[in-house]
Amino acid sequence: MTDYDVLRVFCGPDGGYGNELGVVREGSHLPERGDRQELAAKLGFSETVFVDDPERGVIDIYTPTLRLPFAGHPCVGTAWLLDVPELVTPAGVVGTRLDGEFTWIEARAEWAPPRTLRQYGTAAEVDLLPVPPPGDWLYAWAWEDESAGRIRARAFPGRDDGITEDEATGAAALLLTDQLGRALNITQGKGSQILTAPQPHGWVEVGGRVILER
């Protein structure tokens, strides 16, 4: 099997949780899209990244069933791993920066795949939600502390590909930040943390902690 790294992206303050990500640093070993899709399905991560040019930051992103022009946690994780000033995705050029324990990307909401952003009355309601049947990509969220910008969220891809709940979703956090127009501190899944901040001219920063698992 092709060599790959496994990262956890958007870890909590104690380094736990986070969303696993597979990164194939030598994407040239699998140049064909069909072979990449097959490996992404075999690995079973919510996303797998193939690095086509590590110096320029050119990457290709796959779920177990489809190719994505952009995705949040793959870009944050790969930015941390490659330590480059930008990533080149099919959607556009993603700015990156490392700031202490956090890795940040800057992207645009229109690059993110469509999601249904559904607000609930309380964080407890979000905690108690069952996994919905396959269908819409649902991002369920509620304010934990609106004045402080703290949000509780869970994400349900609805793709029928074995990923029933996404532990941490940068693209959905980007869309929510764009919609609300303010910086957010999101606790998603079992305990992952995502930070966001709107920027001028329609850009949004998304940041989190990254750990190399293997």
Give me a quick take on this structure.
The chain is of the alpha+beta class and 214 residues long.
Alpha carbon gap, first and last residue: 15 Å
The outline comes out as globular
Structural class: alpha+beta
Tally of separate helices: 4
- Largest sheet report: 14 strands, mixed
Whole-number radius of gyration? 16 Å
How large a portion of the residues is in β-strands, by DSSP E? 35-45%
Instruction: Please estimate the helix content.
Output: 10-25%
Q: Residue-averaged pLDDT, rounded?
A: 95
**Strand/helix succession:** EEHEEEHEEEEHEEHEEE
Strand segment tally: 14
Low-pLDDT segments: none
Describe the overall structure.
This protein has helices at about 35-45, 70-80, 125, 170-180, and strands spanning about 5-10, 20-25, 50-55, 60, 65-70, 85-90, 95-100, 100-110, 115-120, 140-145, 150-155, 185-190, 190-200, 205-210. The chain has about 210 residues and is of the alpha+beta class. Strands 1, 2, 3, 4, 5, 6, 7, 8, 9, 10, 11, 12, 13 and 14 form a 14-stranded mixed beta sheet that branches. Strand 10 and strand 11 form a beta hairpin. Helix 2 packs across helix 4 (about 170-180).
